[in-house]
Design a protein that fits this description.
single chain; Golgi apparatus membrane protein TVP23 homolog; TVP23-like; transmembrane; 3 strands; 6 helices; 192 residues; transmembrane helix; mainly alpha
């Protein structure tokens, strides 16, 4: 394939975390808020749009702006602060695509640098919201609301891309996700 995968460490993350107080369960409350705010706002606007206004264009633009803000915030800010993960794609001079996955290194004391509460918030929001958009996609498809299907597909694509990128960061960028899922399902089947 034309993609190369490179692991790099997250820069300057250990210094900030080691100075923070251990008392707070949520070390980055603003990041935690915005991690969920844009996601939930896009879903709420989608659900209430037809009740609040008759303008499809205004609803579509609002939802896509919220989804875009969510994509950027999760990809560039909240993933790094809340769980110490970040990913991106870069294209070199030859036109080859390189996926880069960053993961925060364990601090010198060997302690966890992200809180469990933040990690739960991050992963719950990251996994739940794309599933809701998939349900919306099937709902729009089966109810023949074709104009809403484009908006819902944007929700699935933007939030699904972040989910995929962070799963690759979490489980290891060099591992094949298909073989990992097959092995997991095989173990579950043999266990039963």
């Amino acid at each position: 394939s034309s993609e190369d995968i490179e692991d790099v460490s997250l820069f300057d993350a250990d210094d900030d975390v080691s100075r923070r107080s251990k008392k707070s369960k949520i070390r980055h409350p603003v990041a935690s808020f915005f991690h969920l705010f844009f996601r939930v706002s896009a879903i709420v606007v989608y659900l209430l749009c037809e009740l609040l206004t008759s303008s499809f264009i205004a609803c579509m633009v609002t939802i896509i702006l919220l989804l875009s803000c969510d994509f950027w915030a999760v990809k560039n800010v909240t993933g790094r602060l809340m769980v110490g993960l970040r990913w991106w794609n870069q294209v070199d001079d030859d036109g080859r695509s390189h996926w880069v996955f960053e993961a925060r290194k364990v601090s010198a004391q060997g302690s966890k640098t992200s809180s469990e509460a933040e990690s739960r918030i991050f992963w719950l929001g990251l996994i739940t919201c794309p599933m809701i958009w998939v349900i919306f996609a099937f709902s729009a498809l089966f109810s023949f609301k074709v104009k809403w299907l484009a908006v819902v597909v944007m929700g699935v694509v933007l939030q699904g891309a972040n989910l995929y990128g962070y799963i690759r960061c979490k489980v290891g960028s060099r591992k094949n996700l298909t073989s990992m899922a097959t092995n997991y399902l095989g173990r579950q089947f043999l266990r039963q």
